[in-house]
Amino acid sequence: MKKTIAFSFVILSLFFLLIQAVSAQADTLVLRLSRDWGYGGFNGDIQGLFSMHVTGPETLQRVVFNIDSETIGEDAEAPFAIQFSTDSFDLGIHTMAAIGFTADGTELRSNEISANFVPPQSVGKFIFPILLVVLLAVLGGTVVPLLTSRGKLAELPLGAHRHYGAGGGAICPKCSRPFALPLFSLNVGLMTRLARCPYCGKWGTVRAQRMEKLREAEQAELSWAQAEAPHASEEEKLRKELDDSRYQSG
Predict the structure, then answer these.
(1) By three-state DSSP, how is residue 221 classified?
(2) What is d(CA 89, CA 165) in angstroms, rounded to the nearest whole number?
């Protein structure tokens, strides 16, 4: 009997704790930061236009937004948010927070977010290495093969079904065969890229084509194969006659 009472007491205690936790969570003001335009990167460094967003209980009626305990604005209509520019503040670390007010006058305080406001020119030290990596990838995929490789890269029967991958596909202006574009290829104009046909080995400027056009080009190859078949048969026939004549002369 005593064990049953003790067990019931534990269950009721856990139940009330759960209710309190849910109630406390419902009355919580959650602040988050989003980038609208600019840079948001390593070590909390940010620069440009950003927005603070707040979510809270359904009774939330007004939110005051602060940076370093100074009010920068308020919003009295959901969704509660405010936009700001880091250029309007001194460089360095700043702390963002919000205070919400519910319909019954309860005051709620949000979590705090700290960020380091950096000048525009310092963003380049992060952007330039990324651009350099992209440039090297493009050079490795186009310029280097252009200077070092020759001849055909692949052999594929006419009309064979192809998988073009993430880079899409193009049609060779030299041999009219469709081929998969490299994922990193040199852009030389509006929607135009420099690529090498793997079947004829020629370089040219091409445009990515819709899948319907690529499939039509594959079907066109079948007609070429059928047109070449009789000639191939004649060649085989002539070769056979030459072989036969050798045996007869012997």
Answers:
(1) helix
(2) 47
Answer yes or no: are the C-beta atoms of 62 and 101 closer than 8 Å. Answer: yes
How much is the pTM?
0.45
- Per the structure, the count of domains in the chain is 2
| Whether residue 161 sits in one domain with residue 111 | no
Give pLDDT tens digits for 19-38. 444 344 457 999 999 999 98
Calculate the alpha carbon distances from 153 to 137, 140, 200, 230 in Å.
20, 16, 8, 27
167 domain-assigned: yes
Q: Where are the beta strands (DSSP E) in 110-207?
A: 113-117, 169-171, 178-180, 186-189, 192-196, 203-206
The predicted-structure confidence for 98-150, as pLDDT tens digits, reads as follows: 999 999 999 999 999 999 999 986 555 556 666 666 667 666 555 555 555 55
Counted residue by residue, the chain has a size of 250
pLDDT tens track for 201-220 = 888 889 989 999 999 999 89
